[in-house]
Amino acid sequence: MNMKRINQRDFIESIQKLRKTESKKGEAFYDMAIKLANNGFKMEAYILILATWNFGHFRYVVKNFNIQKFKKKVEKVQYSIDKMKEETIRYINFDKYEKDIDKIYTNLAQIDGVKYTGASKVMHLMNPHLFVMWDNNIRGQKLKRHYQKLGIVKKGYWSSKRYGDDAKSYIHFLKDIQGLFGHLTYQDNTRTFAKAIDEYNYWNISRPIRKMQEAEK
Q: What is the pTM of this model?
């Protein structure tokens, strides 16, 4: 991604605006999921984040969601997760762990109710310091004219680049994120750096695009 690196002041101000403006309900579910994961209830945490933060997909399969199949997929990738447990988005060498990330993402995205957006959210709970969440807005899969109106694009921090849905595209996204945000200073005991990046992206990409779509209906 041939973009400018994110400005420190712009980063902090965006996060502060989000936390002052947005409803606390969504964040309450996130905090609950993190607490569950930290206390050993990982599967419960994953299901909670899917049912709340991936509701658009999960609602269609909730009655028939195959929990046992999901558990087997999680167990299948646990070794790869454990290998990266000390890694963070700022310092990880993605070339070293590309096969592991590919394996995790691909296995999770195969599950109905998880798919591509949900895979990144579950992966974030698996390692909140490393994996940054994404959605269709951030993947560049909306109308190009909407991206051209974004302040973040006008400033040169983002583009209307379109990422695919596969694991290689997610890895490419993570590499871009590392390049754009890795130089920033961030100190907050309530949120990881990877979560703060997600908040920045939501405030500057997902939120305004959704508002544009609503205004055009």
A: 0.94
